[in-house]
Amino acid sequence: MGITIVGLGPGNGRFLTRAAWEVLSQAEMVYLRTERHPAVADLPASVVCHSFDHIYDTADSFESVYETIVAQLLDLAQREPVIYAVPGHPFVGESTVTRLVAQAEAAGVPVEVVAGLSFVEPCLTAVHQDGMDGVQIFDAIEVAQYHYPPVNPDFPLLLGQVYSRMLASELKLVLTAVYPDEHPVTLIHQAGDDDQNIEHVPLYAIDRSDQVSHLTSLFVPPLSTPSTLNALAETVAILRSPEGCPWDQEQTPQSLRSGFLEEASEVLVALDEDDMDGLREELGDVLYHLVMQTQMASEAEEFRLAEVIAAIDAKLKYRHPHVWGDWQVSNSAEVVANWEMLKAQEKADRSESLVDNIPQALPALAYSQKLQSRVTKVGFDWPSIDGVYEKLHEEVRELQTAVSPQHQAEELGDLLFVVVNLAKWLDIDAESALREANAKFSRRFKALEKLASARQLSLAEMDLDSLEALWQEVKLHLTE
């Protein structure tokens, strides 16, 4: 006993291979995954067909459909030879085939596969696309389940089994995470068949076609400009190569430190100003630095970009067991608590101090807040915010009584440290708060200068009371 799996091709009977026709001509019974395929009408008249379409009508999911079909075929194969026919090529978009082959091999049931033409070839013909030009092939059902699709927009994309307008709607929502809404795409209906139809539409309109069916595929051409991390990594690698840029070639991990900090600071400025165009640009500059550092590490055989991405991906999944695991949480506070507990376990395994590995290049306020947040985890903090206010007043008094410049600097540092602790208690980011205060002062002082100029007043010649009056007038009228 055994199983013969036959590919029926993408369209009507003219796409059947000679080998497939010979097998089907000699068969008495053929089991079809689905009868909804153009080639079924052209099968030899002597063949009795049994389809599994009824399982689709009663199952809760495609997963259960596939499991049921495979189980029934294996059961039949224990008693008689089985011929199982599927659309297209058995190993292109046919989940039942891969499962059946694996389980049959485990059960000692021999399997023969008779190849067929897949949907891919007529689709590529329809859009005049060379299949060797980096074409990506995905099952639309699988891609629609992602939040961010696993596709590379620098290369052509072909999606099979866009079987309904509902699926097309889900698919476009996923794809627009990578492609613009207006990106031109092609819907290919009944590829290679006599009734083949092609629709050129923008991506946002793929679910508006009334021709979408189980024989619909979607072709997505690449974006007009390189847009992936891979493309950026290649650009940086070229810059670092002997044929690249002398400046980039001369850089070292240490020489780029100040530039990286500057670019990160500019990201914060864009965030403070709610400047989305600026943020996009500054994030790109930071990304360049990240890829550049990784490229230099790769050249030194320290680590590769793939390892950096794999490590952070694994870390995020490990620290979110309520998403990629069976932990239960009721609110974000529990998420943070779990995160810190898991992080502490990692550090304990490495025998590190609680205050180790805080980036030294952080601005002082940000460093202080990070430091104090760390020690709070073990209860090293005031029991209530009242203690912080009392400590703040104490530090002010000590600063007022300090005599020497060295003592004053020390007490001012202590005062700032307590202010940062207060920010932590108030759930305020100290660094952002000070940047906002700086920006507010700058806006007000510029308005003061403008007002003085309009009244032909010289700031340098005004006394403090006059300056204060002008300042209060600006505060009253300036909209923050």
Short description:
By secondary structure, the protein is of the alpha/beta class.
Word description of this protein:
With 480 residues, the chain is of the alpha/beta class. It folds into 5 domains: 3-118, Tetrapyrrole methylase, N-terminal domain (Cobalt-precorrin-4 Transmethylase, domain 1, 3-Layer(aba) Sandwich), CATH 3.40.1010.10; 121-220, Methyltransferase, Cobalt-precorrin-4 Transmethylase, Domain 2 (2-Layer Sandwich), CATH 3.30.950; 229-318, Helix Hairpins; 353-428, Orthogonal Bundle (Helix Hairpins); 432-477, no CATH class. It has 18 helices and 10 strands. A hairpin with a 7-residue loop joins strand 8 (184-189) and strand 9. The protein is elongated. It starts with a strand and ends with a helix. The model has no long low-confidence stretch (mean pLDDT 89).
Q: What class, by secondary structure content?
A: alpha/beta
**Structure summary, number of beta strands:** 10
The value of Rg in angstroms is: 33 Å
Which range does the strand content fall in? 5-15%
Major beta sheet, strand line-up: 3-2-4-1-5
Helix and strand run: EHEEHHEHEHEHEHEEEHHHHHHHHHHH
Number of domains: 5
Mean pLDDT: 89
Instruction: Give the CATH superfamily of the largest domain.
Output: Tetrapyrrole methylase, N-terminal domain
Termini distance?
82 Å
Helix proportion? 40-55%
Low-pLDDT regions:
none
